[in-house]
Every structure is written in structure tokens, then in C-alpha cells.
Amino acid sequence: MGDYVLFSAIGTSDPIRGNFDGPMLHVVRHYRPKKVYLFFTEEMSQRVDEFGYEWCVKQLCPECEVVVILTDIENAHDYSVFINEFPKHIERIRDENKGATLILTVSSGTQQMCSCLALEALSRGLLAVQVSTPEKGASFSKRVYKGFEYQQAFENDFDNGVAGETENRCREPDLSYYRHIIVKSQIRELINVYDYHGALRLAKSELSGNIRLIRELESVILRLQMKTDEAEAKTSDKSLFPVKKSTYREKRCRILSEYLLVMFHKTLIVSIDDFSLRLTPFLQQLIADYLEFVFGFKIKEYIVKNNIIPDRFPPEMRAFVESEIGAELKGHKMSLLLMVSLFKYHAGTEDVDSILFSGLLNGNRLRNDVAHSLTGLTEDEFEEGYGLTPKLLVHKLFGIMKKVYGTHAKISPEQYAEKITAVLLEVVG
């Protein structure tokens, strides 16, 4: 038994597939580690007892210690998960086994797992071991599924043949040649799941020479922080910012377009509670602009430091609004209820946008629930409360923006997001 320690993700080819060792078991067979760490996603965790991973390892190395790492990772194809998850375990394993050579299996688990482990081996100077299939190509044998009889499979394992006559399919690849390929693949995956911070960290550490990529990622992050002017200055593709600031109306459109883009990004990363919390301030500003640019009513002329000045309202308008809010305007501050009431007065209670705004006002209780809750809001809960999904709401709100700002509302948040992704992926190369 060598002074090796093995870390291996577990995939559907482990422990044995098609009468041959799976990748993890084959590394154990030929390197005989003193300790093996087996990493399981949530799905694979359900197979721990049934599929005999530890039993198979013990048949080859009876003295080997097996450590099982169970996780609640649901998406085994998400690079961003493993970029953050693997380093924690690898650091701990190195601390627990000082002086030992740590082997990372780069053939077991999903492609995303293998790529992340290959990058870890490169960056930390660890030993990566790749295991080829017996077919010397893609394996078409049946994967290991429920009902797998591991003891019988081990007895029928052709790799148990006479020592020296069975093939060693392990190799220690020179990963330096693939470094940029691996890194670029990971950055693309992070961009595709909208993890721009993760992509930027990786780009700065591994592709520091790609200045444009770093600047474009920084631009997107600034944009999502509502630092629009700084973001536009960073990017070399000014078509990403079609809304300018030549007129007051266009300036207002630029602000609301960027805010709606931020909200749409929250739907992409499924941060629905954050989306809900941003909805009220957006609606207040949108309705204020709707009233001003379409109906000629400037709410700013009726407020002082966010306080309503009731005496400035025409009697008929004041009576309608007070009826809607169920209280006198005196002492009332700016609120979504007030803005919706003013809109209904000008547009009519049967107007399609009045109906939408009223429905959103009724669903606004979710915002208060989220603000005082320790749990996040789900898409289903949002749809139940507001009557439509977050993405559909964004689509409807952009439709209203086209009424308010006309041709200044150039492209939808969905189109913005698609274009940003396309530009970033092109720059990655």
C-alpha cells in the first residue's frame, strides 16, 4: 500500500461497469491508497449502501480507510457548485494527510466535476489520474443502476485477472496543455448560469491576459449594481447600452430599463424574494413616469420631502384618491397604494394597466412577508400571490414601458440578457 490518498467523485460507472472496474476502483487497484474519500451528490448519495463502494474498495485494499462525503448538491452539471465545493474538501484532506500524495480522479462523475478536479490538480500541484474505458473510447455498456449486485459484479470483474496480465488503464495526463481549455470551459459555464462574480474571479486568476474579458465581466457586475455609467465606460461594445441620456424622458427610460434588467437577472438566478422586494420601488417610479409622460400629471408638484400636500390636489381627484386609500391624504406619504390610486383616477378603473397595477398592489403583501421572514420566496408562491410568474411580469412591465417612453424603450430585459451572454461568450474565445 503506497503513501497515497485518493479523492474521487462517484459517477454512474462506479464501482464496476460492464465487467470492468469503474474509474474510482481502477485507481484503487493500481495505486493502493491508504485512504479513500468518496464524494457523492444528492442523487448518488442514495446509492451508498446499495452499491457497495466501500466493500469493493476493501476487497482490493483491506486496510484502506474509506471516508464517505455526502452532499445535498442537486445539479451535478453546475460548474459553479463544484468550483466552490471541491476546494473546501481538498484543503481539509491535505490537512488531515500531511506528507501523503493526494490523487484526484479526473474520470469519475460528470464532465463538470472532472474539469473542476483537473483544475484543482493543476493549481495545487496534485496528482491527477485519468482512467480510460476498456473500449478505448466512449463506453456503451450499461451504467450502474438500481438492482446492481455488487458482490456478483466484483466476482465477474475482468480486472481481477492474473496480475501482470490485466491492463492498467490509469494514466497521469499532462494537464498543463489543457489548462486554458478547462478554464475557458468553466468560465463559459459560469456565464451561462449568470454567475458573473465567479467567472470574473476565475478569469483574473487564470486568464489575466484576456483584459477585454475581465473588463466586460466587470461591466456586467457594475451594471447589476445600477452603476450604469461606469458599466458603459468599461465595455468596448457600446451597443449593449442603446438607451442614452439626451432628453429627460430618455434619462428616465435608461434608469428604469436598467432597474428592470436587474430585476430580470433576479429571475434568472431564482432570487425571487429579492425580485419581490425590488418590485415596489420600480412600480412607483414607473407609474410616476406614466402619469407625467402620458397624462401630464407630475406627482412631484404635489409632494414635499416625500410628504403629500393634500391642498394642491383638485377636489375631485382628492376625493377619489382618499376613497381608494381609505384615509385622508393629510399626513400621507408617497406609497404604491397612492400611486395606483392616482393612476386609476387618470386612466380609469377598467383600464388594462389599472387592473394590472391593482393586482400587483393586492399581491404586495408578499413583499412585507418576505421582509419579515427567514425563508426565501419561491416562484410558485410569487405566482400564487401576484397571479403571474416573475418572468411574465417583467414582460408585461416592459410592454408598459414602451407606452411610457416610446421608442426610447429599445430592447427588452430578455434581449439584454441574451446579448450580454453572447458578447461574454464571444470574448472568452
Total domain units: 3
Helix content: 40-55%
Structural class given helices, strands, pairing? alpha/beta
- Rg estimate, integer Å: 29 Å
User: How big a fraction of the residues is strand?
Assistant: 5-15%
Query: CATH homologous superfamily name of the largest domain?
Result: Hypothetical protein VC1899 like domain (Restriction endonuclease-like)
Summarize the model shown.
By secondary structure, the protein is α/β, with parallel strands linked by helices.
Write the topology of this structure:
Elements (H helix, E strand, L loop, with lengths): L3 E6 L6 E2 L2 E2 L1 H9 L3 E6 L1 H4 L7 H8 L4 E6 L8 H18 L4 E5 L5 H14 L2 E5 L18 H6 L14 E2 L7 H14 L3 H11 L4 H14 L3 H7 L13 H21 L3 H24 L7 E2 L2 E2 L6 H11 L10 H12 L4 H12 L1 H7 L7 H8 L3 H16 L7 H16 L1
Parallel strand pairs: 1-4, 1-6, 4-5, 6-7
Antiparallel strand pairs: 2-3, 7-8, 9-10
Helix pairs in contact: 4-5, 5-7, 7-8, 7-19, 8-9, 9-10, 9-19, 11-12, 11-18, 11-19, 12-14, 12-16, 12-18, 13-14, 14-15
